[in-house]
Amino acid sequence: MGKVKTKFKRPPMILPVSLIGANVEGKPNFQAIAWFNMVDYDPYLIGLSSERSHYTNKGIKENKTFSVNIPDSTMASVTDFCGLYSGEEVDKSKVFDVFYGALQTAPMITKMPITVECKLTQTIKLRHADFFIGEIVGVYIEDKYLVDGKLDMKSIDPLLYEDGLNKYWSLGEFIAKAFDIGKKFKPKIK
Amino acid sequence: MGKVKTKFKRPPMILPVSLIGANVEGKPNFQAIAWFNMVDYDPYLIGLSSERSHYTNKGIKENKTFSVNIPDSTMASVTDFCGLYSGEEVDKSKVFDVFYGALQTAPMITKMPITVECKLTQTIKLRHADFFIGEIVGVYIEDKYLVDGKLDMKSIDPLLYEDGLNKYWSLGEFIAKAFDIGKKFKPKIK
After folding, report:
1. Residue B48: CB atoms within 10 Å
2. Which of A80, A93, A173, B7 could link A27 by a cystine bridge, Cβ 3.0 to 4.6 Å?
3. pLDDT in tens, B36-71
4. Which ipTM score applies to this complex?
5. Do the Cβ atoms of B176 and A190 come within 8 Å?
6. pTM assigned to the model
7. Chain B positions in Cβ-Cβ contact with residue A38 (cut-off 8 Å)
8. Separation of alpha carbons B110 and B108, rounded Å
9. Cross-chain residue pair B128–A184, CB shorter than 8 Å
10. C-alpha–C-alpha distance, residues A46 and A132, integer Å
C-alpha cells in the first residue's frame, strides 16, 4: 500500500474548460480548450496551448487577438461539440450569438457567463503546440451574477473538465477562504 | 440586463491547486500554485508560473527539476499554509514526509494523492514571473485510488481553487463524458 509509480503519462486533473474564440478569415470560430491558465499579472496575461495544426491558431495569428469563454455546467454538450469538430470541417460561426469588445476581432459568446478578450503578446513554439500568451483587455460577466460588483461562483456553476480521463464535472461546495485558513495551521514538525 | 464589462482585471476561475516542490539549498520546499497546466504532449509538458522573487524559483533553477503535488479537499489548511509563508521565512522541509523518484531532486509529498516529477526543459521570463516548462518523468498515485489501473476522480476529491476571489472548493458531480456528449449536439443555425 502507498504511493505507486503509474503508467499515466500525465496526471489526471480537474481543469477549467473554455471555448477559445478567434476570427478565422473573418468568421468567428470556437475551440474547446482546457490547457490554459493565468501566467502573469500587471498586466494580467493568459497563456493557452493549442496544437499548431488547429484551425483556431490561424485566426489568433491573423488578428493577434483571441477570447476565452467560460461555459456553465448546462453547456457541456455545445462545449464538447466545439472540441470534437474542427472549424476546417464545421462552420461554427452560426452556433452562438457573438459580440465584440474593444479589440473588435475577438469574438465573445453572448450567453456564456464569463468572457474575456485578449491581445496576443507572445507566441512560444512548443513541439506540437503553439503557446499563446495574451494580455487581458476586458472581462465581461452576465450582470445577473454580479451582486454589488461581487460574484458567487456557485451561482455561475462553471463546467469543469477532467484532463486525462475526459469527463465533465460540476463544482462542489465551498471549503474555506484562501490566504486565510492556513494562518491557523500549525505544522507538526517531524 | 445581459453581459457587462466589469472592473475585474482577470476572470474569476476555478483552477486546480498544487504544491510545487523543489529542493532549495538541499532542503525540500513547497509553494501553493494554481497557475499551472499542461502545455504540450509527446512528451507531456507542464507549464507553471511563479513570481521571480519566490524562494521555490531558486530551487527549480538550481536542480532543473520540480514536483507537482495535488492535495485532496481535506488538505486546504496545509496547502494554504504553504501559500501564505515563503520558504525564506518558514522552513517547510519538515512539514511533510517526502519521497524522491528517478530525478532524485524533485521532492514529492507522500500523503498527497497524486504527485508528478518534472525535468525543467525551458524557462520563459515574463514581466513578473518565471514560466517554467517541465517534462513529466513520473506520475505517482496512492494505490487505494487505482482500481484495475483506473482512477475515480470523485474518490480523490481534489482541492480546487477560485482564482480572483481566493476560495477553496470541492469537486461536484459527474456531468458527461467528453469527446462524446457533443456528438449528439445539433446546433440551431441562426
Report:
1. 26
2. A93
3. 999 999 999 999 999 999 999 999 999 999 999 999
4. 0.96
5. no
6. 0.96
7. 10, 13, 35, 49, 163
8. 6
9. no
10. 8
